[in-house]
Amino acid sequence: MKCEKCGIDVPNGEAATHLGKTLCEDCYIDALAAPKVCDPWAVYVAKKEMGGKTELTDIQNRIGY
User: Fold this and answer.
1) Domain locations along the chain
2) Ordered DSSP codes for 4-45
3) Which of 13, 24, 48, 63 is close enough to 3 for a disulfide, judged by CB 3.0 to 4.6 Å?
4) Taking 80 as the threshold, does the pLDDT of residue 42 lie above it?
């Protein structure tokens, strides 16, 4: 059996089906954990609430280090 996305041979019993395609484990995981685009509204609100302030607070600095 071959993965329909990357074309590698997949041993019997290790193939997964996603949206009608037979995939290897790596391609199946990639299909399920696809990166998500940032929410533009959330970015806008966060920037607006910051009021132009771009420096971290003392607590944020302590968390980061």
Assistant:
1) 16-64
2) TTT--B--TT--EEETTEEE-HHHHHHHHT------HHHHHH
3) 24
4) yes
